[in-house]
């Protein structure tokens, strides 16, 4: 079956530091890949997505590239802000349904001033 | 923000009692989902609906049932709650199968 593995957290950074959160996946066929973000006390929001190999998703300064050869979709941001403190989830959709997602366990990011 | 309301926001109940969680949307989206969120597991799909009275099981459906009698409401029922069902439950909606999900704010359920 499908599975998603994220780097262990929590991750603590100073403002303006570089962020990488690793995500690898196992799936049959050609899944679509997503990063969702959850701010404290809220539901998840889609941050970015990529639907085929070598696609780069980007939003709010965050980027992730769909790497089929390494089955990875690592999240990066060049300069984090305190407001980026949240829980980040990597997820995949095995078919055409973007609602039936397999999630990673989530990575807690805390950014200090 | 998408119009999704989950109720109740918090609930404490006892083992063996029935519990119903409600998800109400004002977006007229066809697809609705119930996920549970647990530490170390991320979110896992419980049940989903692709239209009124059309529902199907997700990854962790044992012990849960759902109903959708109107487009705007999707109910999740725990027939006889167990401590293993202590979790945060999220409802999500989407306009079509290849559109992004919009999530509600969640229901914190504690089964003692």
Highlighted features:
heterodimer; A: 113 residues; mainly beta; 6-stranded mixed β-sheet; globular; B: 7-stranded mixed β-sheet; 4-stranded antiparallel β-sheet; 11 strands; 58% strand
Please provide a written account of the structure.
The complex is a heterodimer of chains A (113) and B (112). The radius of gyration of chain A is 13 Å and the shape is globular. In chain A, β7 (56-59) and β8 (62-65) form a beta hairpin. The model of chain A has no long low-confidence stretch (mean pLDDT 93). Chain A has strands at residues 3-6, 11-14, 19-21, 23-26, 32-38, 44-50, 56-59, 62-65, 75-77, 86-93, 101-103, 107-112. Chain A has no helices and twelve strands. By secondary structure, chain B is an all-beta fold. The relative contact order of chain B is 0.33. Chain A binds chain B through residues 4, 34, 41-46, 49, 89, 91, 96-106, and chain B through 4, 31, 33, 39-45, 48, 58-59, 90, 92, 94, 97-106.
